[in-house]
Amino acid sequence: MAKRNKIADALQVLGExxxxxxxxNDRSALCLLALLDLTQGESWAAAKNPLVxxxxxxxxxxxxxxxxxxxxxxxxxxxxxxHQLVAAGIALYNPDKPTRPVNSPKAVYQIEPDALKLLxxxxxxxxxxxxxAYLKNRKTLAARYAQAREMQKLPVRLATGETMHLSPGDHxxxxxxxxxxxxPRFVPGGVLIYAGDTGEKWGYFDKxxxxxxxxxxxxxxxxxxxxxxxxxRGWLLLVESVTSHGPVDGKRxxxxxxxxxxxxxxxxxxxxxPSRAVMTRYLGxxxxxxxxxxxxxxxxxxxxxxxxxxxxxx
Length: 314
What we know:
This protein is an alpha+beta fold.
């Protein structure tokens, strides 16, 4: 009964905090309890504020409450519970290092201080009064943390003079270099059609222009990290940014060729690396008839075979 009661308490808390019904479930209740390091035999007054990642939350649910979740449900925990708790201002994301990349395995969460103060009074006579006071400021609180997160994003200058923002991290740093350093040198006058973001798949996407070139993609198509259009030469450059995942190898080349098969512009396949040291780890995988660009030597290209130094292969 103690296990069920504590989870039931957490469910009540989530409901009274105004969380959507999709987050009022055992998984979300256990995440909240893990954020508070609150076991079944403790009172809410014993709530704490550890830094905790997704995998430790799942271990907490198993070890303290006997709830077993498969390893492949980590993304469900992150996307369907923790994302919403952070958005509501109840939890903080990477408070120890706000610039940590979105997809970092070291990502951690922590209960927000005002939420901790409130939740430690659950079950007492002060709860109702404290809850009213907390909810009065909740939207302001969530907006404040959202603004702080936005300020940590990486600004990227576009050729149009506009500025887009990417989630912080090495991957985004390389995408920024592709747009600001590679494009002006090798695609002068080129137009940015797409730039991915680790925090939001469609970071920047001129879907209308891509459709005019004969290509329409849905949410299932795995886009390259950057797509640039060179109208003068009739080229569409498909650029992969490699910091932790692989280059344009044979398999990826075929995937992109199929995805952009209807393109009226010729396809140019490019792999971008932050440094030669990173490139050497992937030399054996890079596909022929592709280009390689290295951010720390921005004025040079490495051409993998073929008659031209840069151009589509028909």
